[in-house]
Amino acid sequence: MNEYIHSVTLDEEKCCGCTNCIKRCPTEAIRVRNGKAMILTERCIDCGECIRVCPHHAKRAKSDPLSVIDSFTYKIALPAPSLFGQFNNLSDINIVLNGLIAIGFDSVFEVARGAEIISEAARKLMETGELKKPVISCACPAIVRLIRIRFPELCDHVLPLLTPMEVSARLAKKQASEKTGLPEDQIGVFFISPCPAKVTEAKAPMATEKSAVDGVIAISRIYPQLSAAMDKLTKIEPLAFSGIIGVGWANSGGEATGMLNDKYLAADGIENAIRVLDELEDERINDIDFIELNACHGGCVGGVLTIENPYIAQARVQLLKKHLPVSKNHALDNAATEFHWTNTLNFTPVLKLSDNLEEAMEMMTKIDEITKNLPNLDCGSCGSPSCHAMAEDIVKGNAKITDCIFVLKEQLQAMAKSLSSLS
């Protein structure tokens, strides 16, 4: 598995230690110490929830500037389907694709094309009966990383196929090389991303050793220049090559619908996804073949690197789909093999207390004892997301009991009472 490179970072100068982020992090990956937030890198899944809720914009996602494309002879844009939902009164996705050419790309390859290929490959793979059901979508990297660290028993339920982003990047490079005669190392492929998790996935992929994506540009970063270029277009070339199934992946439920199977479940929002995974791990979900989970509300249109309200973007994507064919791309006969994971998704026990079982049991006992002496308000004032997390931090030596303001108050009151009795 590749070294985990994070795209979500902290700007300490803007952080005031307000604790908003620690309450929203789904993996308890953030603490506030000495008045500043700190990210526990081994726990972070780059979902971007901390970016979404930080009122001071102290959390941010790293992505590449548009100038990164200048390092390559031939430049290809990979627009995510969610990009199309960012523009008002858009009647034709060709306008967006031509706009990308206008700002410096030599060609475009819609990620929606890769989505249609993966949809068909997944259907064929499920028909073999070889996958453990219910099959969980692999499309959202934040969800896959969440499963890897919190739900070990579900790792073998994840669909072992590459993401549409990765498939599109590989096909785009191959086609461009055949068209131009250039070697693939002179051809740059750049994903236009709605979320930080996909930035991380391109830099440190879980499914394969190296991604074919050469750079990731945030939708929010490219939007002003792209929007201006679209307004100035005088001629629209027919560049679009995707249909309803592919473009539909932008919205929650779009991928599941593309499976052409009624026995599916689709949930969006990290808290809802966790609820589904909990029930699935407890074997309380039956008669379902496929589960699509998105960390962001609304699906990819709700990513923190987009600029539009996700529900408005969802509606726009739905309108765009009315003018499209069902699908324009088909999987190769060997697609299930060619686009299969080369790495295995293994449980990463970042939440364990110790490698030594006996020591871990002793630590668990101490955590339970400390938790009983805490107020169990989960207020976050101590800098930990919950009283249980606080107790764990104390046992690990990363906090002290008096970090809890209620415990400190009790100790001060006891000390004052003791002093007054002596006078």
How many angstroms does the end-to-end distance come to?
A: 66 Å
Helix content: 25-40%
**What is the N-to-C order of secondary-structure elements (H for helix, E for strand)?**
EHEEHEEHEHEHHEHEHHHEHEHHHHH
Per DSSP E runs of 2 or more residues, the count of β-strands stands at 11
Structural shape: globular
Our Rg estimate from Cα atoms comes to 24 Å
Biggest sheet strand line-up: 6-5-8-9
How many helices? The count is 16
This entry's quaternary arrangement is single chain
Strand content is 5-15%
Structural class: alpha/beta
Biggest sheet, in brief?
A: 4 strands, parallel
Instruction: State mean pLDDT (0 to 100 scale).
Output: 93
The unreliable regions are: none
Whole-number tally of structural domains: 3
Task: Give descriptors for this structure.
423 residues, alpha/beta, Alpha-Beta Plaits, 3 domains, 3-stranded parallel beta sheet, 16 helices, 39% helix, 11% strand
